[in-house]
Amino acid sequence: MDYSQRRKPYILGKILVAFILIVFCIITLKQSPTHRSSSTSAFSRHEPGVTHVLVTGGAGYIGSHATLRLLKDSYRVTIVDNLSRGNMGAVKVLQKQFPEPGRLQFIYADLGDAQAVKQIFAENAFDAVMHFAAVAYVGESTLEPLRYYHNITANTLIVLEAMAANNVKTLIYSSTCATYGEPEKMPITEKTPQHPINPYGKAKKMAEDIILDFSKKSDMAVMILRYFNVIGSDPEGRLGEAPRPELREHGRISGACFDAASGIISGLKVKGKDYPTTDGTCVRDYIDVTDLVDAHVKALAKAEPKKVGIYNVGTGKGRSVNEFVKACKKATGVDIKVEYLDRRPGDYAEVYSDPSKINRELNWTAQYTDLEKSLRIAWQWQKNHRNGYGQSLLTAS
Fold first, then answer.
1. 3-state class of 78 per DSSP?
2. DSSP string, 296-334
3. Cis amide bond preceding 245, omega within 30
C-alpha cells in the first residue's frame, strides 16, 4: 500500500479529535460563570417596568447629581465616563448609596472611541440616554477650539450613531444657553435666535443641529435642555463640585469664590467691570443643580416618540457677578478680596431665561432660588471635602 494512503486515516483522525476538542472548549466557555454572568446581567436585557438610562459624563458634577436622582427614582443607570473631568470618588459615593445588583454600573470609556461606544451599546440594553459628557468652559474653548468641536460635536454624532444602530429611542441632551450668544432682547426664550459667539456655544449648537436633523427621519424622542449657570450641590451633602486644580482658571464663579474663602487662592478675580449692566459686571441666571436634574428627569418622563422638546432651564432672574460675590461672602462668612480684571474672551454681558415654556409643558419650576442658601449648601460640602473626592482611582466595579 502507498505510504500516503496509509497516512490518510491517521490525519483524518487527528482532525476529528481537534474538532471535538474545539467544540468541547466552546461549550465549556459558554457554561463558565464569567460568560453566564455577562449574558444574564440585568444591564444587558430589557426588563418590564424598569427604565435603563445611559448617563454619559455621569462622574462629573451635573452628571453625578443626575445619576443620584435617577437612582432615587428607581431607574437603572449605566455611567460612561473617561474621568478627564469627572471624579471616580463621585461614582464610589453612588455605588455605596445604591449597592444592590442591577442598579448602577460604571464603564470607563471615551466617547471619542467609536469602537468602544459601539461595544457598550451592543452589550447593554439601554432605554434612554442622558448625554452630559462634554468639556464645558467658555474661556478654555477659545484657547482650544478643536478640542471642543471634537469632544462635543463629534462625540455626540458617535453617540447618535450607536443609538440608531441599537434602536435606543430616547435622548435627553444637555445643552447650554451659550448657543444663543448675546441676544438683543432679554429674557431669552426658546425662539430667541441662536448666534453663539464662542467655540463652546458653537459646538453645542452644531450638536443640536445634528440631533434635530436626525430626528426628522426617525421616531426618536428628543429633549434638548439649554440651561444657564449651574450652582449648588446635593442638599444631603453626598455630592458636590470638585473640578481639577488645573482647571480653576476656567471654572465656575462659585468654585472661585470657595477657593478664595478657603485661602487656596488669595482672592477672587472678576473678569470685566465695564459691561453695559447696572453695576458693570456680567449678569447671569444661576440655576441650582438640584433643580436642573429635576428638569432632566421630568423631560425623560415626558419624552414622546417622533417629538422634539426644546427648553430653557433657568430661574428667569438675572443676578450680577457683584450680587453673586455678596451672596458668597454671606454664605461662607468670609470677606473675600475682589480684584477686577479685563473681560474674558468670548463672554457676553447679560443672559437670563424665560422659563415659562418648561413651566407650562413639563410642570417644572425652579425651587432652589435663594442664591445665598444654594451657596451655603455647596460651601458646606466644600468644607467637609477639602480635597474634593480624594484620589481618583480606577477601581470601580
1. strand
2. HHHHHHH--TT-EEEEEES-S--EEHHHHHHHHHHHHT-
3. no
Q: Are the CB atoms for 239 and 188 separated by under 8 Å? A: no
pLDDT in tens, 180-234: 998 989 999 999 999 999 999 999 999 999 999 999 999 999 999 999 999 999 9
Tell me how far apart the alpha carbons of residues 380 and 360 are, in angstroms, rounded to a whole number: 34
Tell the burial category of 95 from Cβ atoms under 10 Å away from its Cβ (0-12, 13-18, 19+): middle
For the stretch 267-313, pLDDT in tens is 998 989 999 999 999 999 999 999 999 999 999 999 999 999 999 99
Sign of CA dihedral 335, 339, 345, 350: positive
CATH numeric code, 43-384: 3.40.50.720
Find where cell 453612588 sits.
94
Q: Which of 200, 227, 348, 389 is flagged as catalytic? A: 200
| Half-sphere exposure of residue 245: CA atoms within 13 angstroms, side-chain side | 8
Neighbours of 298 (CB within 10 A): 18
5 CB-near residues (< 8 Å, 6+ apart): none
Domain positions in the chain are 43-384
Q: How far apart are CA 222 and CA 302, in angstroms?
A: 10
Sort strands 170-176 and 338-341 into parallel, antiparallel or unpaired. Answer: unpaired
pTM, rounded to two decimals = 0.87
Residue 200 appears among annotated catalytic residues: yes
